[in-house]
TrEMBL record:
InterPro entries: Glyas_Bleomycin-R_OHBP_Dase (IPR029068), Glyas_Fos-R_dOase_dom (IPR004360), GlyoxalaseI/FosfomycinResist (IPR050383), VOC_core (IPR037523). Pfam families: Glyoxalase (PF00903). This is VOC family protein. Residues 7-130 form the VOC domain. It comes from the Bacteria. The lineage of its organism: Bacteria, Bacillati, Actinomycetota, Actinomycetes, Micromonosporales. PROSITE patterns: VOC. CDD domains: VOC.
């Protein structure tokens, strides 16, 4: 097996309300439901594009995400450029998400080439552009901007 044989497939997230989370991720990411079960006690949804799952949501949590426990730090999504990132930011704001810019760059988050927010269960999400605008010096020098929350 070479290093090129392993890639990330999909990410599975535990959620407290499947319908709410499906709506959030469908609107935020522009994905479709590619599989779903509403069986009592076994509710889940596969979200993705072209029939390929990107995210699986499992309704099996009684409480929101807790950042003080080992596990997921954040989930990052890549977009092509600042224009796409601005569109994502617009969709997230329409969903009522609180947008954070942890890049150390003042101004609109999309202008910095990355933004952070939380999903309905408090899971931290990052959206970043591959083609980022030029960045001024960071406002803080205490490690990676996305590292602590």
């Amino acid at each position: 097996m070479s290093d090129h044989d392993i890639t990330t497939g999909h990410v599975g997230l535990n959620v407290t309300d499947l319908d709410r989370s499906v709506g959030f991720y469908r609107q935020a990411l522009g994905v479709e439901v590619v599989g779903r079960s509403d069986a009592d006690g076994r509710r889940y949804a596969f979200l993705g594009r072209g029939g390929t799952p990107m995210i699986t949501l499992w309704q099996q949590s009684a409480a929101p995400f807790a950042a003080d426990r080992a596990g997921l730090h954040h989930l990052a999504f890549q977009v092509a450029d600042g224009t796409d990132l601005a569109e994502v930011e617009h969709r997230l704001r329409a969903l009522g998400a609180t947008i954070r810019d942890d890049s150390g760059v003042a101004g609109e988050p999309a202008a910095a080439g990355q933004l952070f927010c939380y999903d309905p269960d408090g899971i931290r999400l990052e959206f970043y552009a591959v083609e980022r605008p030029p960045r001024p010096a960071r406002a803080a020098t205490d490690g990676p901007a996305c590292g602590f929350f």
